[in-house]
Amino acid sequence: MLNYKQALHFIKLFVFLLGAFFTPKLAAQCPLNTGETTLAPTNGLILYLPLDGNTANSGTGNYTINLAGARFVDGICGNGLEFDGIDDYLEVLPSVDLRNDFTITAWIKAKDMLRPMDIFSVREQCVSSYRGFAMIQLGLNEYQVSGLSSQVNTTVDCVGGSAGDRYRNSEIAIPNDEYTFIAVTVENNSSENRQVSLTVNCTEYETEMTIDYPTDAVFSGLINFCTTIGAASKIPGYINSFSGIIDEFRLYDRTLGYDEIQKIYRNCRPLTLSHTQFTNCASDSLLFQIDYSETDVDYAVMNMTNNLLITTLQSGNCGVLLLHSGMIDDTANIQVIATHRTSGCITLLDSPVSVVPRRNFHVWDVNQLCEGDSIWFQGQFISIPGHYTDTVPQQGQCDSIYELDITAVPTVQLNLVSDTTICEGDHLILDVTVPEATYFWQDHSSMPVFEVTTTGDYWVEVSTLCGTSSDSSHIDVIDCDCNYFLPNAFTPNGDQLNDDFGLITDCAVINDFHLLIFNRFGSMMFESTDVRATWDGSYRGKKCPAGSYVWILFQKDHFNQAMKPQKGLVSLVY
Q1: Which residues are 185's β-sheet partners?
Q2: Do 556 and 521 meet the contact criterion of CB atoms below 8 Å apart?
Q3: Could you tell me which CATH class the domain 4-35+270-355 is placed in?
């Protein structure tokens, strides 16, 4: 999970956002809260018809709107106008000149029709035929795969047939009986490199020109225009009148960007948030539903009690997002957090939801058992370590749950160390660690380990819940750096100088000493296992002849390990 404290500097913005709750939001860099709306752009807004009980123009253009047949009904923002698809329309006087760049937006709720329906058109006024120049014709196609289309710049005359440039996108689908936001932007309208885009709710579509007609022919001469909303049913023979509701109609004399168009969309469609709480005897959970989520915002569920995110981030999709909190075991305040993907600005949506899970009556116990002991649980004696659970049903309530953890206390079996010898400067650690035990050493220390540095007797007592055990050991600490050697000559002449041959050493201990001396014929002249014994140069009471003799020395090291036999020559001199 993500720690929310890492983003605390963003949370400070929340205090400011509270003051703007349910008020229009001017900046798009912080996510909208529930119920918040945005301000629609006003620059270039020449025709704005809120249609709230009248046809007054709230834009900057000097236009009069004549109502023909359509009636006021409930719309998406206040009232709207319902058109019967036969002969209802609004006429805009004077006719709007849209030869340059422009943008049209509106909310529509179309009925099921098996033919195209036009929302707005500027057409040549003919006497007996609808044919002729249509400078712009914004419509939707409700046949099979319904779609929104923009037909611009078609003309020949009022006598001949019509032609023009048409722009479509086959992916666009307009639902029936559902409010849908539509927008068309036209850039470079009077040139051959015209750019047309169509927007449905939060999705902007590029368009494909399906019919091409020279622009020069379209913009030549003066033509008697007729501008209508709800199609041109005023013109005889016109059959593509709109059937449904139109609300919040806007016309700009410039091309709006996507962000501006989305402000118009959010002006009438704020984000909404609802939740469903699911309860059981173990834990609770919440299912949040966000309607009309923002496409540049990520949403997640946060536990405000411990400041941890409990869901992964989900990207807004202009439609419905479902966020499931997962199981919540403890009392907590849960809230949806919204993060703007570009600015990083954070908004906490609506108010926290308090979750207080109903709980089973729950008892948890831990028991330690010595070897051979047992405990009564679930109607039986239990002696094997493990986790045990017993459930007692309660009618009409959460069950009672009893949990028991049994751990075994190990029997203390000490083996301190056999009597041994170590060298000075070496370290010997006596370790008698036993889980959940107490310790008492010969020097009254109480740690589970003891470091030996001097010769002595060492002992320890180890106590657990299941009894006490003790052990002892004798350890010698000796100087392992002593020296010894055998001379290479001696003179047994009675002058008290070098009269005998033997080991010369300052070692306190030499283990398993064994010295052998042989003449040049291989006969043993001397043997001793006493490190202090020496050879006087005789054999069986007789002096040996002068010459060289071989000696062999066997011994063990300080740790009673056999060393490699040593050999050498010694000269007997008279």
Answers
A1: 103, 197
A2: no
A3: mainly beta
CATH class of the domain comprising 420-478: mainly beta
Q: Is the pLDDT of residue 333 over 50?
A: yes
For residue 62, pLDDT over 70 is answered with yes
CA–CA distances in Å: residue 519 to residues 251, 533, 572: 130, 19, 11
Confidence band (pLDDT; 50, 70, 90) for 295?
very high
Cβ atoms 32, 339 nearer than 8 A:
no
What is the residue whose two structure tokens read 């997640």?
Answer: 300
- C-alpha atoms less than 13 angstroms from C-alpha of 414 in its C-beta half-sphere: 24
* Mean pLDDT on 418-446: 88
Give the H or E element holding residue 89. Answer: strand 89-93
Q: Which of these, 501, 540, 504, 500, lies nearest to 524 by C-alpha position?
A: 540
pTM of the predicted model, to two decimals? 0.58
Return the CATH class of domain 37-267: mainly beta
Distance CA 263, CA 270 (A): 10
Q: Closest Cα to residue 105, out of 225, 247, 296?
A: 247
Domain-by-domain residue ranges, the chain? 4-35+270-355, 37-267, 361-408, 420-478, 484-572
Report how far apart, in Å, the C-alpha atoms of 157 and of each of 124, 153, 305 are.
Answer: 8, 12, 72
Nearest alpha carbon to residue 202 among 361, 323, 293, 318: 318
Give SS3 for 267.
Answer: helix
Q: In residues, how long is the chain?
A: 574
Spatial separation of the C-alpha atoms in residues 63 and 95, rounded to whole Å: 8
CA angle 176, 32, 304 (to 5 degrees): 120
What is the domain class of 484-572 according to CATH? mainly beta
| CB distance 341 to 297 below 8 Å | yes
Q: For the chain, first and last CA: distance in Å?
A: 95
Check for a shared fold between 37-267 and 420-478: no
Query: Which amino acid makes up residue 292?
Result: Y
CB neighbourhood size of 190 (10 A): 15
DSSP state for residue 328 in the 8-state scheme: B
More confident residue, 126 or 203: 203
Measured from the Cβ of residue 159, the count of other Cβ atoms closer than 10 Å reads 9
pLDDT, tens digit (0-9, with 9 covering 90-100), for 488-531: 999 998 888 888 999 888 776 777 889 999 998 989 999 999 88
Among the listed residues 115, 136, 97, the one whose alpha carbon sits nearest the alpha carbon of residue 232:
136
Q: What percent of the chain has pLDDT over 90?
A: 43
Q: Which two tokens stand for residue 370?
A: 């010595």
pLDDT (tens digit per residue) in 346-402: 999 999 999 887 665 556 677 788 887 888 877 788 888 888 887 777 666 676 777
Tokens of 318: 């202009």
Listed residue (499, 493, 489, 492) closest to 568, CA to CA: 489
Q: Is 217 exposed, middle or buried (0-12, 13-18, 19+ CB in 10 A)?
A: middle
In order of 151, 248, 319, 407, 531, the CA distances from 133 in angstroms are: 11, 27, 39, 92, 132
Is it the case that residue 153 has pLDDT exceeding 50? no
